[in-house]
Design brief:
The structure is a homodimer. In chain A, a hairpin with a 7-residue loop joins strand 2 (about 95) and strand 3 (about 105-110). The first copy, chain A, has one domain: Orthogonal Bundle (Arc Repressor Mutant, subunit A). In chain A, helix 2 packs across helix 5 (about 110-125). Chain A is about 50% helix and about 5% strand. Chain A has seven helices and three strands, in the order ααβααββααα. The first copy, chain A, has a three-stranded antiparallel beta sheet with strand order 1-3-2. With about 170 residues, chain A is mainly α. The first copy, chain A, has helices at about 25-40, 50-60, 65-75, 75-90, 110-125, 125-130, 135-150, and strands at about 65, 95, 105-110. The interface between A and B is large, with 79 and 77 residues. The structure holds a DNA duplex (30 and 30 nucleotides).
DNA sequence: TAAATAGTTGGTGCTTCACAGACGATTCCT
DNA sequence: AGGAATCGTCTGTGAAGCACCAACTATTTA
């Protein structure tokens, strides 16, 4: 049943005052509302929300290998292939063989990809207006910055040993 | 193809400096990462992320009808039934006939439900630590507050006329 | 040379979900 | 009172996402 996700200890932040405010459900809810609208808006561009996520990660992370992508997106490698096929067919990304390790494909955003991503984001403005309507411009920027920082944090634990499974059920 | 979602004008915020930062993709990405962990954590409790979302909305919104729930969750009414059946079977919610309109079911969180929700949120702490590891406690609280405000904004447009369909494709 | 790794392909099965159709109960309109 | 609309429920259907498995090639590493 369990998905075998590496439980990473994250001992950097000692549990000082663990506020009971969990944003998980809210995150889920808002993401759903956003995705519903994004699908409609993105359909004319031949893109799906998932593609946008991949492109966004690609833009932020630069050229990465496919399995690195699979790690950060937390998707199965086999499903990454199809996703990248879509994007490559539209020439939004490029797969180059890595000179260092010719087994690797270095995935990179093309100029078209960057442009297309920008267009898509522009098209998403109205969707975001609906979902984040309660927030002012400055607040949205704050939200964006927080999300960006949380999202671009590498899950470095994938390769490390990470044997600290001290279950903290104190709460 | 289109989902018939009421485009709400939101003319309160004039387009002053529409930052090109779209949080849609980031929201999606983080929600996915969170949900993957939440499923594992919530499984022992017999709950799924969707249930948590419903419970959270219920706690925030008090007793609402099922179709009101369907509106705020933006789910099909028929699927709401099954969702509520699950929660009612666990006695986390209660369906009472509305005295005003006996067709309506007033859905309310039970004490067990509130308790269970709290437990679940507690169990999600570790998951949130992994996903939001890059953010400090204060930042997480800020994030929570922003998400909460965005999420609890009623989509009042459902019933109103909302005839302002001035498509803003300036961008 | 043998083993491990990166990517690809194809296939299977589970789960979610929107949507449609039908039904009983209830309310609203005239 | 009679008819239409609404709320909730049940059932089924079909599409899509996704994890997982197995096999294969190309390449690197021990």
């Amino acid at each position: 049943m369990f998905r075998g996700l590496g439980r990473l200890g994250h001992m950097s932040a000692p549990p000082l005052e663990p506020s009971e405010h969990r944003s998980g459900a809210l995150l889920d809810h808002l993401a759903r509302r956003m995705r519903l609208r994004a699908e409609s808006v993105l359909a004319p561009l031949g893109l799906r929300p998932r593609h946008l996520v991949a492109l966004t990660v690609l833009r932020a992370g630069g050229g990465t290998s496919q399995q690195a992508l699979a790690t950060t997106l937390e998707m199965d490698s086999t499903n990454i292939v199809g996703l990248l096929n879509d994007l490559e067919a539209k020439q939004l990304i490029e797969r180059r063989r890595s000179p260092q390790d010719r087994r690797r494909h270095v995935v990179e955003l093309t100029d078209d990809g960057a442009k297309s991503l920008k267009e898509a984001e522009c098209a998403l403005a109205s969707a975001e207006d609906e979902v984040l309507g309660a927030l002012g411009p400055a607040e949205r920027e704050t939200l964006y910055e927080l999300l960006r920082r949380a999202a671009t944090t590498q899950v470095t634990c994938t390769e490390t040993i990470c044997g600290t499974d001290t279950d903290i059920d104190a709460c």
